[in-house]
Amino acid sequence: MFSDKKEKRISTEPGSAQNRINEGTKLKGDVSSTGFFRIDGSVDGNVKTPSKVVLGKTGVIIGTLICENADIEGKFEGTLHVSGTLTLRASAVIEGDVTVGKLSVEPGATLNASCVMQSGNSKNRAASTQTNLDTAKDTPFNRQSQIKKVADS
To answer: For residues 14 and 50, is the Cβ–Cβ distance under 8 A?
Structure first.
């Protein structure tokens, strides 16, 4: 009647477990976890977590970082996707492509990247942007429409 087998459930929600890559550690490859990351060493590859990532002063990531929130003091090169808040401390050096929900930059941080700010759902945002553009064409405050009307007169 009762089975001794227990089903293992795989959770995709952020965990409370902390993962740490210490100073002097070099990791090459892709890293994925449901928990928080603290990186003081070097990662050459992709890091993915639905939680927070802290890149310490001695930390280096070369590759792709996908996370909810990030606090960066070290060096990052590559593609950075932060759905929540990206905090750049004074010692941070960022190079590459950045997509964030919110951005906080301390004086002294270096950001040599293309940066895109986005809200929750990019599909809805693109649709609303197109709708706003369509309605803007019809308003009397649209400069292009006014120039065209004057030119046609």
So the answer is: yes
CA gap 19, 28 in Å, rounded: 16
Which residues have CB under 8 Å from 126's CB, separation 6+? Answer: none
Helix runs in the chain, H state only = 122-138, 143-152
- pLDDT tens-digit series, residues 17-46: 789 999 999 999 999 999 999 999 999 999
* Spatial separation of the C-alpha atoms in residues 107 and 132, rounded to whole Å: 35
**How far is 131 from 151, CA to CA, in rounded Å?**
26
What is the Cα–Cα distance from 91 to 106, expressed in whole angstroms?
9
Count CA within 13 A, CB hemisphere, residue 110: 11
Read off the pLDDT of residues 71-108 as tens digits, 9 standing for 90 and up.
999 999 999 999 999 999 999 999 999 999 999 999 99
DSSP conformation class of 68? S
Q: At what angle do helices 143-152 and 122-138 cross, to 10 degrees?
A: 30
| Residue 94 near residue 111, CB atoms below 8 Å | yes
